[in-house]
Design brief:
The complex is a heterodimer of chains A (952) and B (70). Chain A has 952 residues and is of the alpha/beta class. Helices cover 29% and strands 16% of the residues of chain A. Chain A has a seven-stranded mixed beta sheet, with helices on one face. In chain A, strands 31-35-32-34-33-36 form a six-stranded mixed β-barrel. A five-stranded parallel beta sheet of chain A has the order 20-17-16-21-22. Classes of the chains: A alpha/beta (952), B mainly alpha (70). Chains A and B meet through helix 22 of A and helix 1, helix 2 and helix 3 of B. Bound molecules: iron/sulfur cluster (3 copies) and FE2/S2 (inorganic) cluster.
Chain lengths: 952, 70
């Protein structure tokens, strides 16, 4: 495809069901009521010259270039601000209009540097295009020099701001306000004097509130705001639509290319998850893909104390297969296992679990979703019947009350957060949705421009179940439950049993207040609002799942939604916000040791038979080991070999000391990744991976949306990840012959009822599909449980609050909870290798002023963070975002090793680790701990690669 | 915690959380049957009921009997 900018209809789409017919330049057109004349014209293929309008933001009517003539109206109204009316007759091209437009253009050009030939946006500039469109040939005014000669702002690592080129159209300001919701930009002065600035005139972009989402760059019609990469490489010449590989929002992008070089990632307007928006990670932070530390050749070594030796792929596969066979023969087939990644595609994940089940001959396969969302799977399957969220993202537009618990969407799921914020602010006279936030920390969404949560309940970490039960108590005892819904959709006896339980006075907000530390009156008000405020939707994240009662909390959330009838239509529902890009997909693909693709238990003979017949093997009917169980078994000396794809368990899993002991006890650790990650310090075989830009496949986002990932460049390591797994399987003697990931998807569809209608051809056609995609729902299922729950009747489960075993005491009086930050991603392996470090160079410990003062700690001081499991050091920042008694940090940087202090307590049902609660002590410190120093030394030692040809 | 201690801890945790079920012993046994790998089950059967809460102990005995009977 040659380069084409994305269509711009000038003004946003109207959501009206009514239609209006009119005539534009003699042609009839019918559009939804509320559409602008400009958009109506664009839809019939007539482009009216414009500068200040773009379809991502509301029209403003300032440039006066889009003038039209309308029969029966005086003057020349601006088409971007004039809504269509029935029977209107519009002319967009007349000599009079041409003259007016030329005059307008002349004014703009007189205040614009005429360096088009050397401008980065040459050929991709709307000012240039419009000058051409109106036939501008000369400029009669003197150059006014209002904007010219101003200093450029290069502070943002990804885009430049050149105010001399600004035409003061305010598209950037409106994009920041309306699309992103950050309100970082302002206009100073008026008319020709107006100047754009980030925050105060003294601020630059980096120092301002700007979160570098790129919406303003996208909206800017000139080269004023332009990607540095475009300045460096030049404008793109072709584009490929693909999916972001960072988070569970799953934004669709156009990878805009020049040859094999990626120029920029631009959010795709037709992307159903992001609707043309992006965040700093997907938009800009893809530099890691070409980072010099990327490993491109396979490497092996006998022992982890040896340096690495580079080998060719053939040797790597032969050696790996021989090691796996040796270990299987010596210790038995159960000594082998694999870990799939939620960063890899569905097809790759499916192959890894197939390799384990069909090749290794056991069910020892797990996924990193174990450590984040396994409780979602368990909880929602038990209560509703499917292990997935109930809504699409669009649903939030019809929500009246948003309840966020244990999630920090502005940092973790930024693009969806922007859509949420848009709904919270209200729009076009429609009042905003109400907001309830349940979180130990005052997250950004609690109070941000034009948004103020009605209720923020800052609970003590670890008491989610108690808070939700108290809310249920209020709903049931105050008669706010939706009995009609419950009688129709749920099991009434189970409901009655549950209602009786939550009504007990020990579950009242007042009686639980000493435990939760949440003000009872506030909790009552929040519960009433959720139950009676109209469509209520719950969004939750890892602050719910990563607890010893993670699964119970998910079920408690499901109970609340059912009790209030908030399930089965737009605007409501229970929505897990997934961490990594393909957490949903990894779970769907049968990565858990107890179930096959589509969440069917391995003990189910019929399902097993289906797979056995297709694969020509016999499957073990017993569940295999989960990640923590694998590590225990390794320490016990019976688990010896691990194939770990795209996952850094040493850094991401809790209790680092235990993980490293487990890894060190294995004889063959195979790491398949882009970089020598922390786990690779313990690896014997390193298989280089490919990036999402280098392979074909699909990711499934938090809305169950299966989306294509498309190869835009050749893998630098030579093989796509699915090919690596296939070659390994072949070396082990399996007869696999996939020639393209689409064939893997065909196999998934053949074996998984909820994927029955999915194929690459269908995905290309539809753009994306939300499972279940079946004969009954050939176009997928945006909303689930519409006519009844998947499991039949919704199941209320009594969830009694059980305090965690991790308790504070005199030695460890504070509670540590962990989270993430916008600019970094998970363990940071990718984002730390990009310019994003400009925003988050290190992990910081947030501590309340009172606790800080008690310990003599000031912002910027090094502190020691110690728990029963271990200790580490990092710098402190003193803030009242956290409550007294609570401290908080992120875990993006390996040197911090925050998981050295987390314990191995875990969710009772799924073993999902309890990251969110650790009893700790903070004290002053002057540098890294012994562990950190030893670890640094080990890491340095184990990353050595032999140079030159090794003597055999 | 070594592996056996961890299994005992896990079994107790499951039992505590399923205590409000109609038939807690069966629920705990079913949960362990569904999610524990054979070696973990074998280890806890061999360990016996020391340190287990009454519900967890009953569930483990139930499972062990079923296994032996089968
Ligand atoms: S990059 Fe995003 S946050 Fe920053 S000024 Fe532009 S629109 Fe606003
Ligand atoms: S920076 Fe670009 S979008 Fe913003 S006012 Fe100037 S020309 Fe318009
Ligand atoms: S919100 Fe998530 S999916 Fe979207 S661009 Fe950012 S990281 Fe990528
Ligand atoms: S595009 Fe309509 S006034 Fe600028």
């Amino acid at each position: 495809m040659t380069y084409q900018p994305q269509n711009d209809f000038g003004t946003p789409e109207s959501r009206s069901d009514e239609t209006v017919s009119l005539t534009i330049d003699g042609r009839n057109v019918t559009v939804p009521a509320g559409t602008s004349v400009m958009r109506a014209a664009a839809e019939q293929g007539t482009s009216i010259p414009k500068l200040c309008a773009t379809d991502s933001v509301k029209s403003f009517g300032s440039c006066r270039l889009c003038l039209v003539e309308i029969d029966g109206r005086r003057g020349t109204p601006a088409s971007c601000t004039t809504p269509v009316e029935p029977g209107m007759v519009v002319r967009t091209q007349t000599p009079h209009l041409a003259k007016l437009r030329k005059g307008v253009m002349e004014l703009y050009i007189s205040d614009h540097p005429l360096d088009c030939l050397t401008c980065a946006a040459n050929g991709d500039c709307e000012l240039q295009d419009q000058a051409g469109a109106v036939g501008l040939r000369d400029v009669r005014y003197d150059v006014q020099a209002t904007h010219l000669g101003q200093e450029k702002d290069h502070s943002n690592p990804y885009f430049d701001f050149d105010p001399s080129k600004c035409i003061a159209c305010s598209r950037c300001i409106r994009a920041c306000d309306e699309v992103q919701g950050t309100l970082a930009l302002t206009m100073e002065g008026r008319g020709w004097d107006s100047k754009i600035s980030a925050g105060l005139a003294s601020d630059n972009f980096l120092g301002s509130e700007c979160v570098s989402c790129g919406a303003c760059v996208q909206a800017c019609p000139t080269a004023t705001l332009v990607e540095k990469k475009v300045v460096e490489v030049g404008t793109p010449e072709r584009s490929v639509v693909t999916t972001c590989a960072y988070c569970g929002v799953g934004c669709t992008f156009r990878a805009e290319m020049r040859g094999e070089q990626l120029v920029r990632m631009v959010p795709y307007k037709d992307g159903k998850a992001n609707r043309g928006h992006s965040c700093v990670k997907g938009r800009f932070a893809w530099g890691y893909a070409q980072h010099q530390e990327r490993i491109l050749k396979p490497m092996i070594r006998k022992s982890i104390s040896d340096p690495w030796r580079e080998v060719e792929w053939d040797e790597a596969f032969a050696y790996t297969a021989s090691e796996l066979k040796r270990i299987s023969a010596k210790y038995g087939r159960n000594a082998l296992g694999g870990i799939t990644s939620s960063r890899c595609t569905n097809e790759e994940t499916f192959l890894v679990q197939k390799l384990v089940r069909a090749g290794f001959g056991n069910n020892n396969v797990d996924t990193c979703a174990r450590v984040c969302h396994s409780p979602t799977g368990y909880g929602l399957k038990t209560t509703f019947g499917t292990s997935a969220g109930t809504q699409d993202f669009d649903s939030v537009e019809d929500t009246d009350v948003i309840l966020i618990i244990g999630a920090n969407p502005t940092d973790g799921h930024p693009v969806f957060a922007s859509r949420m914020k848009r709904r919270l602010r209200g729009q076009d006279g429609r009042p905003g949705a109400k907001l309830i936030v349940i979180d130990p920390r005052r997250t950004d969404i609690v109070r941000s421009p034009h948004i103020e949560a009605q209720h923020h309940l800052p609970l003590r970490p670890g008491t989610n179940v108690a808070v939700l039960t108290a809310m249920a108590h209020v709903i049931v005892t105050e008669g706010l439950a939706d009995e009609a819904f419950i009688r129709e959709r749920c099991d009434w006896d189970e409901y009655s049993h549950w209602a009786e339980f939550v009504s007990q006075s020990r579950n009242s907000p007042e009686n639980l207040q000493p435990v939760t530390l949440v003000d009872a009156e506030k909790l009552r008000a929040a519960a009433r609002l959720y139950a009676t405020g109209g469509n209520g939707a719950i969004y939750y994240g890892l602050g719910v799942t990563e607890h010893s009662q993670g699964s119970s909390t998910v079920m408690a959330i499901a109970n609340l939604a059912m009790a209030t009838g908030n399930i089965g239509r737009r605007g409501v529902g229970v929505n897990p916000l997934r961490g990594q890009n393909n957490v949903q997909g990894a779970c769907d693909m049968g990565s858990f040791p107890h179930e096959l693709a589509g969440y069917r238990h391995i003990s189910d003979g019929n399902t097993r038979k289906l797979f056995e017949d297709d694969w020509g093997v016999t499957l073990d009917p017993e569940p295999g080991l989960r990640i923590p169980n694998m590590l225990d078994a390794a320490v016990d000396g019976v688990f010896k070999a691990l194939y770990c794809q795209g996952e850094d368990i040493l850094q991401s899993d809790p209790n680092t000391a235990h993980v490293s002991a487990g890894l060190a006890a294995m004889e063959c650790v195979i790491v398949h990744d882009l970089f020598l990650n922390e786990t690779a310090n313990y690896a014997h075989i390193f298989l280089p991976g490919s990036t999402f830009l280098e392979k074909n496949g699909t990711f499934t986002n938090a809305e169950r949306r299966i989306q294509p990932v498309r190869k835009v460049m050749t893998p630098m390591n030579g093989l796509e990840d699915w090919e690596v797994t296939q070659r390994l399987a072949q070396a082990m003697g399996l007869d696999w012959n996939y020639t393209h990931p689409s064939e893997i998807m065909d196999e998934i569809a053949r074996l998984t009822p909820t994927f029955a209608g999915v194929s690459f051809a269908r995905l290309d056609e539809a753009g994306s599909l939300q499972w279940p995609v079946t004969a009954d729902a050939p176009d997928g299922s945006p909303i689930m449980h519409v006519d009844g729950f998947v499991r039949g009747k919704g199941k209320f489960v009594v969830t009694d609050y059980v305090p965690t075993d991790e308790k504070t005491g005199p030695r460890f009086p504070l509670l540590l909870t962990t989270g993430r930050i916008l600019s970094q991603y998970n363990v940071g392996a990718q984002t730390r290798r990009t310019e994003n470090v400009a925003w988050h160079p290190e992990d910081l410990l947030e501590i309340h002023p009172v606790d800080a003062e008690d310990r003599g700690v000031k912002s910027g001081d090094w502190v020691k963070l110690a728990s029963r499991a271990g200790e580490t050091t990092l710098r402190a920042t003193v803030t009242d975002r956290v409550a007294p008694g609570v401290v908080y940090t992120t875990f993006h940087h390996a040197v911090t090793q925050a998981n050295v202090v987390t314990t191995d307590f875990s969710d009772w049902a799924t073993n999902c680790p309890e990251y969110k609660v650790t009893a700790v002590q903070i004290s002053a410190s002057n540098g890294p701990t012994e562990w950190q120093e030893e670890y640094e030394a080990l890491a340095a030692r184990s990353r050595r690669v032999e140079t030159g040809v090794p003597a055999e | 915690m070594n592996s056996v201690e961890r299994l005992v801890h896990m079994a107790n945790q499951i039992a505590t959380n399923l205590a409000t079920d109609d038939a807690p012993v069966a629920a705990v046994a079913d949960h362990i049957q569904q999610f524990w790998d054979p070696r973990m089950k074998k280890m806890i059967f061999a360990h016996g009921t020391a340190g287990l809460s009454p519900v967890a102990a009953a569930a483990i005995s139930l499972l062990a009997d079923a296994q032996n009977g089968a």
